[in-house]
Amino acid sequence: MAWQPPSPRVRDLIRQCAQIVVNPRQDWLDEFDTAVLAANPEISSDPELAAAIVRSNHANLFFWGTANVRDPGTPVPPNTGPEPLSIARELVRRGVSTFPLDAYRVGEGVAWRRLMEIAFSLTSDPAELHEMLDVCSRSVSDFVEATLAGIATQIELERDELTRGTHAERRETVALLLEGAPIPRQRAEARLGYALTGTHTAAVIWSENPEGDLSGLDRAAESFGQACGDPRPLSVPASSATRWVWAAGAPAGISALNNDTDSFSTVRIAIGPTADGLDGFRRSHFDAITTQQMMARLHSPQQIAQFSDIELVALLTAEPDRAAEFVNHHLGDLESADHELRETVRVFVNEQCNASRAAAKLYLHRNTLLRRLARADELLPRPLAENSVAVAVALDVLRWHGNRPG
Fold first, then answer.
1. Is the Cβ–Cβ distance between 251 and 272 less than 8 Å?
2. What local confidence, expressed as pLDDT, does residue 287 receive?
3. Crossing angle of helices 355-362/339-350, nearest 10°?
4. Hey, what's the torsion of the CAs at 376, 378, 380, 385, to 10 degrees?
5. Any residues with CB less than 8 A from the CB of 144 and at least 6 apart, and which?
6. Is the CB of residue 367 less than 8 Å from the CB of residue 265?
7. Would residue 198 be called left, alpha or beta, if left means φ above 0 and alpha means ψ between -120 and 50 degrees?
8. pLDDT given for residue 152 in this prediction
9. 47-70 and 26-38 are packed helices; what angle lies between their axes, rounded to 10 degrees?
10. 136, 304, 362, 376: least surrounded by Cβ within 10 Å?
11. Which residues pair with 206 in a beta bridge?
12. Nearest-CA neighbor of 83 among 53, 104, 109?
């Protein structure tokens, strides 16, 4: 159907609508992001990819709105800016073979509902509404289709580039090892420059800001290797802003790694357990991935996490609604208490309810500790002495959660 320019009055209405779109309320964006990420668990469980999808959708909203402020009611060209095209790069580097159309279709649906809401707030004239919504519907649909076509084209270009890249052989070798393919160990070691015998500790190191300075990824990989006593850890780019790392040894120097975080403040690190041999190489990596996914799922404020510290929390929070019920059921009013009080209870239980040891660890006088525990008992649904294990687990969930009080 040939594009028919709207009437002058509807052009003015579309411009007003677009001005609201380019300055959206935060609750609109929150609804938009939540719906988009919920549509595709593969995306939402990957913090780097989720952040890229959110940036891309926000950029598309702004692109369409800006075009219609400038020239309302005319066809909008595809968005070929850095945000949507970076999606292609991230998908290819993860080996995702199909483009997650749901993430964009759901976003288009949420945006369209908001656009209709804006339209009805601007005019109540049936003829104006009909013309405005008809023009905007075709405009949004054509814009999204053209932008998706551009991303699909870029995916093919990125795939061609990746297969010719210098890291392609190492990525391919790691993929074969993780899949359990029958590749001879000596050949894999020669390709990787890394011994697959002995003990291994894996880490996933990533940045949620792929447009920023990514040199911190390599510094973090080196620091992780040093913490494990391995001066030359294996580091494989899993995507533009993610490294899969293996070190020969155990992370005895995690405290030193924590002290190094100032030099890579925008980087997150998820660490798997130390394990032996090729099976340990795989298992440690998959547990590091589980740790990363938990950090993303809970929007954890922690920069470094070890699987050994979060294993139970990861299992419990796999179903967020059930986890929230568990926390509320066992903590009651303590859930919304200040961080200091919650941390006192958590450390006390972790020290086998030994007040002297807990006070020493928290640098508190023993009487201060006991007063805090008495206050916690007033807030808990059941006395701490009767339910200490469940309370400790619930407090650990809060500790890793980024959207909780305190």
1. no
2. 95
3. 130
4. 70
5. 60, 104, 108
6. no
7. left
8. 79
9. 130
10. 362
11. 242, 268
12. 53
Tokens at 245, concatenated: 């790392």
With H, G, I as helix, E, B as strand and everything else as coil, classify residue 200.
Answer: strand
Task: Name the residue among 28, 122, 109, 110 with its Cα closest to residue 72.
Answer: 122
Location of structure tokens 């990514």: 214
Q: What is the pLDDT of residue 16?
A: 94
Say how many C-beta atoms besides its own lie within 10 A of residue 117's C-beta.
Answer: 11
First to last CA, the chain: 57
Q: State how far the alpha carbon of 161 is from the alpha carbons of 32, 88, 157, in Å.
A: 33, 12, 6
Q: Is the dihedral of CA 329, 404, 27, 114 positive or negative?
A: negative
Q: How far apart are CA 232 and CA 84, in angstroms?
A: 35
Chain centroid to CA 214: how far?
Answer: 17
Block residue for tokens 């970076």:
86
Q: What is the pLDDT of residue 406?
A: 45
The pLDDT assigned to 306 comes to 92
228 neighbors 216 (Cβ within 8 angstroms): no
Parallel/antiparallel/unpaired status of strands 234-239 and 242-247:
antiparallel
Contact (CB, 8 A) for 264 and 220: yes
Distance CA 121, CA 360 (A): 62
Closest CA to 84 of 117, 107, 52: 52
pLDDT < 50 stretches in the chain: 97, 165, 405-406
Residue 85 in 3-state DSSP?
helix
Rounded distance between C-alpha atoms, residue 347 and residue 376, angstroms? 13
Q: What is the pLDDT of residue 224?
A: 92
> Encoding tokens for residue 257?
């790694």
Q: How far are the Cα atoms of 36, 221, 251, 285, 397 from residue 247, in angstroms, in the given order?
A: 36, 9, 9, 11, 29
Eight-class DSSP state of 204: E
∠ CA 334-337-342, nearest 5°, is: 70
User: Could you tell me which of 286, 267, 290, 238 has the C-alpha nearest to residue 90?
Assistant: 238
Residue 386, burial from CB neighbour count under 10 angstroms (0-12, 13-18, 19+): exposed
